[in-house]
Amino acid sequence: MTAALSASGRGARVLVLEAANRVGRKILASGNGRCNLANLGPESYPGGGPFAQKILRQCPVSRVLDFFHGLGLVTVEEDGGRVYPGCGQAAAVLDVLRSAMERQKIEVLCDTPVKRVQQTKWGLRAEAGGKAFDASAVIAACGGMAGGKLGHDGGAYRLLTDLGHTLTPVKPALAPLMAEKSAVRGLSGLRLPAILTLCDQKGQPLGHPFQGEALFTDYGVSGVCAMELARRAGEEKEKTGAWPVLYMDFAPMLGLCPRYYGALDKADGDPNRHLKAMRVFLEERAHILPKDALLQGMVPRLLAERLKGRSIPELARSLAAFPVPLTGVRGFEYAQVTAGGVACGEFDPATLQSLLVPGLYAAGEMLDVDGACGGFNLQFAFASGIVAGEEAVRAALML
Length: 399
Fold this sequence. Notes:
The protein is built from 13 helices and 19 strands. By secondary structure, the protein is an alpha+beta fold. It folds into 2 domains: about 1-170 and about 340-399, FAD/NAD(P)-binding domain; about 175-330, no CATH class. A 6-stranded antiparallel beta barrel has the order 11-14-13-12-15-17. A 3-stranded antiparallel β-sheet has the order 2-4-3. Strand 7 (about 125-130) and strand 8 (about 130-135) form a beta hairpin. The two termini are about 25 Å apart.
């Protein structure tokens, strides 16, 4: 939609071919229905970071927000630089986009998945709905596979691979973690402030830990701080053949460290960093409470039952580095973002035009770019759409 508006605003005749029965449905599901559309903080793109940064230099967050403010959207900044619509409703973002498309008389054909894109003597041709549509430029902005029915089934990538482009293998990112059932048995439903650290089979930390609210489920651990680790967990499995171990530090729940949401410094990766403080804390409680009441009022009853009968040293270790051996990452149906996509190196970062097929452009999650939680993925989608739309028109005018 941002690509269409960007191109139309520069005088192009634009046609949107939409596979779903309504354009923009995925926006409604983003940010738990609030649509975290951008982030004013430092850029965070675990996948395709250098490429994303080049696009965002051309279309920084200020320009993305100016684009939306120009459509009438009121935005507010919240913790961590996250930007939301002021009314707190994702529908407001979709409404201003759809309304602007109607005002600019952009034609939209829904329930019209594109089957093939091919080069012609005069440009490009998209085949969809039993018809052929000729154009000087085609922008592939089909999104990724995350989100179940709101994502695509992988067929959209074939539109570009059939033209010679390379697909970097795709996998779920920002997805819940699956664990050995014995590690989470009896804890399902608990939502606790914690610091989460991934470690390899030798106990060595793997990258930055994340802090936030972790949710125990019957299959493993969810919550934003857990989902942020999905990409790294998958990489470790690919590298070593073994899933890493998740360590959960409950020091934030007990007031032994400040509560925070997001990535911590890599130097904080030791899963036992609060072990000594945890033991001192428990020993002080043992001076005033009987042994069978040591955990009452301190941890939820389900966790207290799980830890019952352990000595103070054992309790300290369990609360400072609760081990959860992982067995996988939940699939695309439960993921918020797709890691992987069409290789960025095959597109000009100044224009987003294909280096293989003149007139072909790509934007958003079609490309091998994925950001951290906090609005970065939508921000790149909007920014790349704006750049691709304006550059497609500029190139057409030069022909």
